[in-house]
Specification:
Number of strands: 20
Shape: globular
Helix content: 25-40%
Largest sheet: 7 strands, mixed
Oligomer: single chain
Distance between the termini: 58 Å
Structural class: alpha/beta
């Protein structure tokens, strides 16, 4: 559905009740996390209080993902479970945001009777307005009337300039890292991917605006930023020209790297076709650009890559890996792989398996193919049975796990530099940091170490996390 739909027409009624608490859950990628941060920032600015306790919430917002069916089902299931909270709070507001909201629109209101708000990917900046309006209307009516009246707002319209609306941050004390959204949308139209229809066409922010945001973050204590885009290394190709032989994205990397006080720079997620010579060379000449690339491969079979509409061959991917490793020896490489794509034969799968072993990734995200509606792959012949997809998924995960363990084990006994990010998520009594190659290091230490860059001695490895000796801390 395009445009905006109001389920109940009427003037917004003001209210003076205490500002409510908002429970905001995010599904999916770092861009979704960044979008949620912007929503939280706008709600907090109006006096709302964010809460992690579902039972305390007056507003429930789920920022959704549509890349795989499982992500959508998790969000729908969670919303169904949370709807029971309305039994004791009839005036509660329940809303879906993001990619699934964009894709399904008003059918979420129609099919889930308790959903009040559906906001698409280009309207995050309107969420606070809509929450205000829904709460005002509900609080103006009695509980009995609320039982008989449904409120709903659906806004999934496109909006020019929406890429400029994700620019504010909610920083925690001593926060050392931050994500910066530099663009929205995607023009690649891979046959398995729903993103072009949920995020729209490519459109980028201005370099000056991005640099100003980074400078502000650094002034607040941030030491590392990660630039985000659907295909981040194609940034600016429609809006800007090359300068001195440098693509707009490399121009942006240079400008951000020049911000005083910024120590580390990363980006995600790129596409192999966007790695021209200037970007590869940037890894050799920009010290702040960290030696890690998440480089989605998707398949090692040329036949499947063509069916996916990826725009490169397995050999071209190998050559890119060689160029990156030559430019920055020791660079860490991670990737995305899809197994069970329509028409994938055992031979195709084994080509993918062999290429994963040949490249020797530091880690990989392996996904079973998931049909997404309105994508070409969903209607292709030769859909692979779920049992075959699952078997290939588990087999490739074993290969990836073995590679990750070997890469991590090789660092045991070595000193590595980390940026200490704060308490570990799994054990708040310990600290966590990341190496330049984006490997997690767990260590003991004090608050003075948060936000600092220093070396630790790696004493052991669990395969996906390293453990550092606190004895080397200053």
């Amino acid at each position: 559905m395009a445009g905006i739909f109001f389920g109940l027409i009427g003037a917004c009624v003001s209210f003076r009740a205490p500002m409510p608490k908002v429970f905001l859950r995010t599904y999916g990628c770092q861009m979704n996390e960044r979008d949620s941060e912007q929503v939280a920032r706008m709600l907090i600015a109006r006096g709302y209080e964010m809460t992690d306790a579902e039972k305390d919430a007056d507003v429930v917002l789920l920022n959704t993902c549509s890349v795989r069916d499982m992500a959508e089902q998790k969000a729908i299931g969670k919303m169904g479970m949370l709807s029971r909270l309305r039994e004791r709070k009839p005036e509660m507001v329940f809303g879906f945001l993001g990619c699934m909201a964009q894709s399904r629109g008003d059918e979420l209101v129609r099919d889930l009777g308790h959903v009040d708000l559906v906001v698409g990917t280009q309207k995050f900046h309107k969420v606070a307005d809509y929450v205000d309006e829904l709460l005002a209307r509900k609080r103006a009516l009695s509980e009995k009337v609320l039982d008989d009246v449904r409120f709903s707002i659906v806004d999934v319209a496109e909006e020019e300039g929406s890429q400029e609306s994700i620019r504010e941050h909610v920083l925690k004390p001593r926060q050392a890292t931050a994500f910066v959204s530099i663009m929205q949308g995607c023009n690649m139209h891979c046959t398995f991917c729903i993103v072009p229809s949920t995020r729209g066409a490519e459109r980028g922010r201005g370099i000056g605006e991005i640099v100003a945001e980074v400078r502000s973050l650094v002034e607040q204590g941030v030491r590392e930023v990660t630039l985000l885009g659907q295909i981040v290394n194609l940034y600016g190709r429609h809006e800007m020209a090359k300068k001195d032989g440098l693509s707009p994205f490399v121009q942006l990397l240079e400008a951000v790297a020049g911000v005083p006080g910024l120590e580390r720079l990363r980006f995600t997620s790129p596409h192999p076709i966007g790695f021209r010579d200037d970007l590869v060379a940037a890894f050799a000449r920009l010290p702040k650009l960290m030696p890690h690339v998440h480089l989605p491969m998707q398949s090692g079979s040329d036949r499947i890559l063509k069916a996916m509409h990826r725009g490169y061959t397995a050999q071209k991917y190998r050559e890119l890996v060689e160029r990156l490793r030559a430019a920055r020896p020791g660079i860490a490489l991670t990737t995305d792989i899809i197994v069970g794509f329509p028409g994938e034969t055992e031979e195709d799968y084994l080509a993918t398996r062999a290429m994963v072993e040949e490249v020797g990734f530091d880690n990989a995200f392996v996904f079973r193919y998931s049909p997404r509606r309105d994508t070409p792959a969903a209607s292709m012949d030769d859909q692979i049975p779920e049992s075959v997809r699952e078997a290939r998924n588990q087999d490739l995960l074993r290969v990836v796990d073995d590679l990750a363990h070997r890469k991590a084990d090789a660092l045991v006994g070595q000193r590595v530099e980390i940026l200490c990010e704060g308490p570990s998520k799994n054990n708040p009594d310990r600290l966590t940091g990341r190496t330049p190659g984006n490997k997690i290091v767990i260590l003991e230490g004090g608050e003075r170490h948060i936000g600092q860059i220093f070396e630790v001695l790696v004493t052991r490895s669990s395969g996906f996390s390293l453990y550092g000796d606190p004895a080397v801390l200053g």
